[in-house]
UniProtKB/TrEMBL annotation:
Keyword terms, alphabetized: ATP-binding, Kinase, Membrane, Nucleotide-binding, Transferase, Transmembrane, Transmembrane helix, Two-component regulatory system
Record CDD domains: HATPase_UhpB-NarQ-NarX-like
Domain Histidine kinase span(s) in chain numbering: 658-745
Protein name per the record: ATP-binding protein
Record-annotated membrane-spanning stretches: 42-62, 171-193, 200-224, 236-255, 264-284, 290-311, 323-344, 356-376, 388-409
GO molecular function per UniProt: ATP binding
Protein origin, superkingdom: Bacteria
Sequence segments annotated as region (Disordered): 1-22
Biased composition range(s): Polar residues: 1-19
Short name of one Pfam family: HATPase_c
Length: 749
C-alpha cells in the first residue's frame, strides 16, 4: 500500500483513497530497532556531508584570491571605488573603473553588471556570453596572481590579489548556506521516514533547490570574480537544477494526493522534455536559451496546476487545493519576474544592478515553498509568513523594474508604487492561501458546549454506544467528509497525511470493558480545508471536557443517590412509625384502611428512593399493585396490560418520573372521572415506552381543560424524559391519555 508525502518526521501519511496497512499511528512503529538505527545513521551521515560541503565551499571561497575593495555604481553605469584597504589603491578612491587588464595584455571592459555574478538571469544570449567572458577572464587573472585595474582617467594600478579569508565571506553567505542546509536535511528526512516514490521525488526537489541556495550563497560573497570553474558552468547548472525540480513537481502532482490514470505517461513527458532541453543546452544548440528554460519552467507549472485541478474535480482533496493555490502564486511570480528580467536592457545603467536582487529573492521564495510543502499542516505561522513575504518581495522587485523600464518612473516613485502593490497583493492573497489550511470558520463556545453536553447525556443513557456518540461529537465539530474507526490506538490526537486526516484516540468514558482504537477524520469542513495542529489540540481538549462532564455528572448522581437514601430512611423511620401508631389508634375501620393504604404508598416510595436499580418487570409489578389498591378503595375495576420486548433497567430518574405520571393519571380518574373501569397498558417496543390510560368516566373535551398542577406535572415529567403526552376523548364516553417516552434505557448486560 502506497503512502503520501510525510507531514512530520515521526508520522506516516494517508491520502483520500488509501488505508494504511501497518501501524498507521505510530510512524516508525513497524520498523525494527535495527532499521530505525540505520535510518538515524543515514540522517547523521547526510548531516555530516552537508556540513562538510558548506565547510569546503567556505574554505574555497576564503582561499580564492580577491582585491580588498568596495565598489558602488555610478550614474554612468561604471564601478566607482568607494573604499579599500589596499595601499596601492588609496590614491584611486572615487575613480571609475573602466576595464581589467590581464597578465597577457587582454583588456576586458568591466561594468556594474560584471559584479552580478549569476549569468542565469540574463535573457539576451550575446550579452550573457560577453559577460561570462569578462567574468571568466577576471577570475583567471585573479587566480594567476596578478591583475591590472584601468580607470577612466587612463590611470592603471597593478595588484597582487590575496585570499579574502573567512571574515570576508559576508553574512549572506552563511545565511543562504544555513537555509540550504535545512532544505538539504529535510530532503533526506522525508524519504527516510517513508521511503516511497513520491517522497523520493520530494527529495529530488529539495536537494536541487538546496544546491541552488548554495550557489546563491557563493554568488553572494562580495568579490570581483568567483572561482573560474563556477563562472564557466554556473548558469547551465542553475538552469538544469530548476528544470529537474519542475519535472519532479509534475510527476509528484500526477501521483499525490491521488494517483491519476496515465501518470507514467505524464512523468515520461516531463522528464523527456527536461532531458531534451539539457542535451541541447549542454551542446550549445539552443537559440534564445534563456527563453526556452523559462518556457519549460512555466509549462511545468501550468501542467502541475492542471493536474491538481483534475484531481480535485475527480476526488475533492484539501491538500490539492492548498498546493494548487501555492502553485498558482509561484507561477504568477515566476512569470512576472521573467517579464521584468527580459526588460532589463531597457533599464538605466544605475538601476540594472538592482535587477539582480529579484532572482536571488526568487530562489529563496521557491526554496521556502519546497520546504513548506511536507509540513503544511504542522508548520507554524512564521514558516508560512516567511514563504509569503519572500514571494511578495519578489513581486515588489519585479514590479519596480517594470515601472522603471516601461513607464520610465523615477527610482523613488517606482519603488513606492511597487511596495504599495506588493502589500495589497499580500493582504489579498494571505487569507486565500492560509484559509485553506486553517479554516474559514471559528467554532463558537455556545455551539461547542451544546454538542458536548448533549453527547454527555446520551453517553450516560446508553453507555454501550459511547464510542458512536464521541464520533458523532467529532463529526459535529470538524464536519469531515469521511470518518473511519481503526483498532490501532495512539496516545494523543495527531495530524497525518499532511493535514488530510486527523487521528483521535477513543478514551474510556464509562465503566466496563476498556474502549480500544481511534477514529480517523478525513478532510475537515466537508473537504474545504486541511487539518492543522490546532485541530489535534482542540480534539484532545474536547474529549477531556467530555470526560470531565461525565465525571461531574457521576459525582452529582452519587450525591443524589446518597441523599435519596437518607430521605427514604428518614421517611421510613419517622413518618412510617407515626402512621403505624396512628393506624392502630384509628377510630373507625375506614380510617384504619385509609392509613394502611398510605403506609403502603410510603413503603413503595421509600423502597424506590433507596433502590440502586429498578428492573422494569419489578417496577411494573409495583405499579400494578399500587394502582390496584388505590382503585379498589373507590370500587373501580382495573384492567392491566404489560408487554415488553426486552428486559431493561430503569434509571432512578426514569423510575421516579414514570411512577409519578401513572399515579397522577390514576388520581385524576379517581378525583374527576367517576369511572367504573380503568384500562392501563404499558408497552416497550424497540426502546420506546408507551403508557395508555383509558377510563369510562364522565370526561369532557380535553381541549377545554384548564392547565393545573396535575396535568402540568404529567407534561413536565414526560418532557424531562424526552417524551410526549396526548389526551383525547373516548367514545362513547371517557378519556384516553397516551404517554410516549423514546430511548427509555439500555438492556441489562
Amino acid at each position: 500500500m502506497s503512502r503520501g508525502w510525510s507531514d512530520s518526521t515521526d508520522a506516516p501519511t494517508w491520502t483520500a483513497n488509501e488505508t494504511p496497512d501497518t501501524d498507521p499511528l505510530g510512524g516508525l512503529g513497524d520498523l525494527s530497532l535495527r532499521r530505525i538505527g540505520w535510518r538515524r545513521q543515514a540522517l547523521l551521515a547526510a548531516a555530516i556531508i552537508g556540513c562538510l560541503t558548506i565547510f569546503l565551499l567556505a574554505r574555497v571561497m576564503a582561499n580564492n584570491p580577491d582585491v580588498a575593495a568596495q565598489w558602488r555604481a555610478s550614474a554612468d553605469g561604471y564601478l566607482e571605488l568607494a573604499d579599500t584597504s589596499v595601499p596601492e589603491l588609496k590614491g584611486s578612491l572615487g575613480k571609475e573603473l573602466e576595464a581589467i587588464v590581464t597578465a597577457d595584455g587582454q583588456v576586458m571592459p568591466f561594468g556594474v553588471l560584471a559584479m552580478a555574478h549569476s549569468a542565469r538571469w540574463i535573457s539576451h544570449d550575446p550579452s550573457r556570453e560577453k559577460m561570462q567572458a569578462v567574468r571568466l577572464a577576471t577570475a583567471r587573472a585573479l587566480e594567476a596572481g596578478q591583475i591590472t585595474l584601468r580607470f577612466r582617467d587612463a590611470s592603471q594600478v597593478t595588484l597582487l590579489p590575496k585570499p579574502r579569508g573567512y571574515a570576508g565571506l559576508g553574512a549572506m553567505f552563511w545565511l543562504m548556506s544555513a537555509f540550504g542546509m535545512v532544505l538539504f536535511l529535510v530532503g533526506w528526512i522525508v524519504p527516510l521516514v517513508q521511503p516511497n516514490p513520491r517522497n523520493l521525488l520530494y527529495a529530488i526537489m529539495a536537494h536541487a533547490q538546496a544546491a541552488q541556495l548554495l550557489i546563491s550563497a557563493v554568488a553572494a560573497v562580495p568579490a570581483m570574480a568567483l572561482p573560474s570553474s563556477m563562472v564557466a558552468h554556473e548558469s547551465l547548472v542553475r538552469v538544469l537544477l530548476d528544470a529537474v525540480t519542475g519535472a519532479a513537481v509534475v510527476q509528484a502532482a500526477a501521483m499525490h494526493p491521488v494517483r491519476m490514470p496515465g501518470r507514467l505517461w505524464v512523468a515520461a513527458c516531463a522528464w523527456g522534455a527536461t532531458a531534451l532541453y539539457a542535451a541541447l543546452a549542454v551542446r550549445g544548440q539552443l537559440i534564445n536559451e534563456w527563453w526556452w528554460s523559462q518556457g519549460l519552467l512555466i509549462a511545468d507549472g501550468l501542467t502541475c496546476i492542471a493536474l491538481l485541478s483534475w484531481v480535485h474535480r475527480r476526488s475533492p482533496h484539501p491538500f490539492a487545493i492548498v498546493v494548487r493555490r501555492f502553485a498558482m502564486v509561484t507561477l504568477a511570480t515566476l512569470a512576472l519576474l521573467t517579464v521584468a528580467v527580459s526588460l532589463m536592457p531597457m533599464l538605466p545603467p544605475e538601476v540594472q544592478p538592482v535587477a539582480t536582487v529579484g532572482p536571488v529573492i526568487w530562489s529563496v521564495f521557491f526554496a521556502s515553498i519546497i520546504l513548506l510543502v511536507p509540513f503544511i499542516s504542522r508548520s507554524q505561522n512564521v514558516m508560512r509568513e516567511f514563504a509569503m513575504l519572500a514571494g511578495i518581495s519578489t513581486v515588489a522587485t519585479s514590479v519596480d523594474l517594470l515601472f522603471v523600464a516601461v513607464f520610465s518612473f523615477s527610482q523613488f516613485t517606482s519603488l513606492t508604487l511597487s511596495l504599495f502593490l506588493a502589500l495589497g497583493a499580500y493582504a489579498a492573497l494571505r487569507q486565500w492561501l492560509v484559509g485553506q489550511m486553517m479554516g474559514a470558520r471559528a467554532l463558537t463556545t455556545e455551539r461547542m458546549f451544546q454538542h458536548l453536553y448533549r453527547i454527555a447525556r446520551e453517553v450516560e443513557a446508553r453507555p454501550e454506544r459511547a464510542a458512536d456518540r464521541m464520533i458523532e461529537l467529532l463529526r459535529n465539530v470538524f464536519e469531515p467528509l469521511e470518518t473511519e474507526r481503526t483498532e490501532t490506538r495512539s496516545k494523543q490526537s495527531m495530524v497525518i497525511g499532511n493535514g488530510a486526516a486527523l487521528v483521535v484516540p477513543l478514551p474510556n468514558l464509562v465503566d466496563g470493558p476498556s474502549m480500544r482504537g481511534s477514529v480517523v477524520l478525513r478532510f475537515a469542513e466537508r473537504g474545504k480545508r486541511l487539518f492543522a495542529l490546532e485541530d489535534a489540540r482542540l480534539a484532545d481538549r474536547i474529549l477531556e471536557q467530555l470526560m470531565r462532564a461525565l465525571a461531574h455528572d457521576r459525582a452529582v448522581e452519587r450525591g443524589r443517590s446518597e441523599e435519596r437514601v437518607r430521605i427514604a430512611q428518614d421517611l421510613h423511620d419517622d413518618i412510617g412509625a407515626r402512621l403505624l401508631t396512628l393506624m392502630y389508634k384509628a377510630p373507625s375501620t375506614e380510617m384504619e384502611e385509609y392509613i394502611r393504604h398510605t403506609l403502603q404508598d410510603l413503603k413503595t416510595l421509600t423502597r424506590g428512593l433507596a433502590a440502586k436499580s429498578h428492573p422494569l418487570a419489578l417496577a411494573s409489578a409495583e405499579w400494578k399493585t399500587d394502582i390496584t389498591l388505590r382503585l379498589e378503595a373507590v370500587h373501580c375495576q382495573l384492567e392491566w396490560e404489560a408487554e415488553y420486548d426486552q428486559e431493561i433497567t430503569l434509571s432512578m430518574m426514569q423510575w421516579s418520573a414514570i411512577t409519578r405520571v401513572l399515579r397522577e393519571l390514576v388520581s385524576n380518574v379517581i378525583a374527576h372521572a367517576k369511572a367504573s373501569r380503568v384500562h392501563v397498558a404499558c408497552q416497550l417496543r424497540q426502546g420506546t415506552f408507551t403508557i395508555l390510560v383509558e377510563d369510562d368516566g364522565v370526561g369532557t373535551d380535553p381541549a377545554k381543560w384548564s392547565a393545573g398542577l396535575g396535568l402540568g406535572g404529567v407534561r413536565k415529567r414526560a418532557k424531562s424524559l424526552g417524551g410526549t403526552v396526548a389526551w383525547r376523548t373516548r367514545r362513547p364516553h371517557g378519556t384516553i391519555c397516551e404517554v410516549q417516552i423514546p430511548h427509555v434505557s439500555t438492556p441489562e448486560a
